Amino acid sequence: MEHRNPQIPMSSRQPSQAVSVVIPALNAAPGIAAALHALAAGATDPLREVIVVDGGSTDDTAAIARDHGAQVIIAPRGRGPQLAAGAATASGAWLLFLHADTALAPEWGKTATAFMRDPANAARAGYFRFTLDDAAAAARRLEVAVAWRNRVLGLPYGDQGLLIRRDFYRALGGYRPLPLMEDVDMVRRIGRRRLVMLDAPALTSARRYRQDGYLGRPLRNALCLGLYYLGLPPRLIARVYR
């Protein structure tokens, strides 16, 4: 019997809670199938569309995305330009920005729907709880540190997703085509008091932490954040990051 990947349920209607999902991707074949599976499994209503914005992948990222029912568009490499391009293409009343190596928990749809139905959230944005697919104690310590950063500093990063009404996103000026720090730039414009943590985990691949170290990578991220707050241009911070 022929095996087919499950298609993400899509809606041709545009009710007030219709969601367009935007996923920037670059050589994301190892993880994007899991991200798309999770979207399909947790969606309580058909999604308006899923847009995978490819930055020039040389692997099967685009083919896998299309096989799961996603629309694939091409944009200049970099999360900032790719996110902006996806949002410009999207037609849903709400936008959900998600990384290609992040799989949302099964309850994500129910949680997101409750958030979108509350009129008070028309000028707020939601993000998911950061978790890593690693049983190591270092992963749990990092999750605690991220929860502190979210609560105290109001700085969820892109690997926690961002759910925002399209009108509010546009009023804020949208994602800027920055080579780095595009997520920090966005949440700073949203403002800490208008950010809401959604009660569902976003499971992100720990591959980069295992590769760079559970100490080395967070320290590098902290250095980049500090340089950003000191006013160093993102193009120069990107050199430090690389």
Structure description:
The protein has 242 residues and is α/β, with parallel strands linked by helices. The chain has one domain (19-212): Spore Coat Polysaccharide Biosynthesis Protein SpsA, Chain A, CATH 3.90.550. The protein is 43% helix and 19% strand. It has 10 helices and 8 strands. It has helices at residues 29-42, 61-67, 79-89, 108-117, 137-153, 166-172, 182-190, 207-212, 216-229, 234-241, and strands at 19-25, 49-54, 71-74, 94-97, 102-104, 125-132, 162-165, 195-204. The protein has an 8-stranded mixed β-sheet with strand order 3-2-1-4-7-6-8-5, sandwiched between helices. Helix 1 (29-42) links the parallel strand 1 (19-25) and strand 2 (49-54). It is globular and about 45 Å long.
